[in-house]
Amino acid sequence: MQARTLKIIAALLIISAVFMGIIGYKISQEDSSKSRPTSQIQTSAAEQSNFAYAQKLLIANRSMNKGEIITAEDIQLIPYPLLVDGSYTKVADIINKKLESKVAVGAVIRSSDFEKQSTLAPHINPGYRALSIKVNEASSAGGFLQPGDRVDIIFTARASKDTYNKSMSRRLLQNIRLIAFGTDVERNDKNIEVSEGKKKSSAKAEKESGKSSRSAVLEIALEDIPVITLAEESGELRLVVVGEADMASTKADQLNPTDSQQTLSKHMSDADRTAFIRDVTGLKPSPPPKSVYVYSGDSVETITVRK
Fold first, then answer.
1. Looking at 12-21, 132-141, 173-182, 262-271, which range is the least confident one?
2. For FRET with 216, which of 17, 100, 137, 150 sits at 20 to 30 Å CA-CA?
3. How far apart are CA 247 and CA 226, in angstroms?
4. What predicted TM-score, i.e. pTM, was given to this entire model?
5. How confident is the model at residue 261 (pLDDT cuts 50, 70, 90)?
6. What is the maximal distance between C-alpha atoms in the chain?
7. Domain SAF spans what residues (predicted)?
8. Band of pLDDT at residue 40, cut at 50, 70 and 90
9. For residue 67, is it left (φ>0), alpha (ψ between -120 and 50) or beta?
């Protein structure tokens, strides 16, 4: 063979050897990764698990009410597996801060717990609204009312052209709950919460929230609100306190009803509401629409008829 041909064959053999060496190195690396001990894999998984629980969040050691100031004894840092929006990881961020909502024991402390919320909304029962009426010392039982009292609402009006030259005095609603009086608001624990958030002496509190109060907030049924607002515009409203003995007898009647007339009602009847509007405005409200039921085989159709 010629020398040139031998050189070409030798060069090809060298190139082939290099490629085979590269391929063999890659195969050996893949085999070593597959044969890694199971213990190393488990260790890696354990490290990832520990990393997931590495964060610590502040939780409440005890149940705390709105208005309480957080101390170091009230909270603790614990490992927590989930991310919680608005949570805290540093004690210094919430120490001496005032809660604006109730926090249960074991609950994660959140930024929303320190945001001011509605003063009246948490105290209103379903189907009712908080309605404020103007009062003075005479119309508010001498200014001695307190949130949580039960009152009757009395309407009075002197004879005038607006009242068709008729004097009127009528009890509109009975057993109405007083939600707020002056700057005091009823709380679930029956204590009084002052709007400024500070305790005051009894004399100063009476001056600011008692006899000098100009408004009382009542819990009124939704359907009775137009009647109360009309009455306030047409005359004067007085609040008469219901005594404890009457309250006790009312609760007994509600538990063992023997006579429906003995139970105090929080609502006006349709007849009383109609009579009051007619007496105050001189207008007779339109009667409620009547319903006619049309039966056709197994189906029933309701048709509302208005006069």
1. 262-271
2. 100
3. 27
4. 0.50
5. very low
6. 142
7. 55-115
8. low
9. left
Single-letter residue type at 233: E
Instruction: Annotate the chain with three-state secondary structure.
Output: CCHHHHHHHHHHHHHHHHHHHHHHHHHHHHHHHHCCCHHHHHHHHHHHHHHHCCCEEEEECCCECCCCECCHHHEEEEECCCCCCCECCCHHHCCCCECCCCECCCCECEHHHHCCCCCCHHHCCCCEEEEEEECCCCCCHHHCCCCCCEEEEEEEECCCCCCCCCCEEEEEEEEEEEEEECCEEECCCCCEEECCCCCCCHHHHHHHHCCCCCEEEEEEEHHHHHHHHHHHHHCEEEEEECCHHHHHHHHHHHHCCCCHHHCCCCCCCHHHHHHHHHHHHCCCCCCCCEEEEEEECCEEEEEEECC
The answer to whether residues 119 and 192 touch, using CB atoms and an 8 Å cutoff, is: no
* Of residues 272, 259, 79, the one with CA closest to residue 170: 272
Please report the pLDDT score of residue 5 as a whole number.
79
CA distances from 74 to 84, 92, 165, 189 (A): 19, 13, 66, 20
**Cα(177)–Cα(130) distance, rounded to whole angstroms?**
10
pLDDT of residue 259: 43
Name, of 50-54, 156-160, 259-263, the range with top average pLDDT.
Answer: 156-160
Angle, vertex CA 266, rays to CA 263 and CA 271, nearest 5: 90
Residues in the chain: 307
* C-beta of residue 147 within 8 angstroms of C-beta of residue 178: yes
Predicted confidence (pLDDT) per residue in 275-299, tens digit: 887 777 766 666 666 777 777 777 7
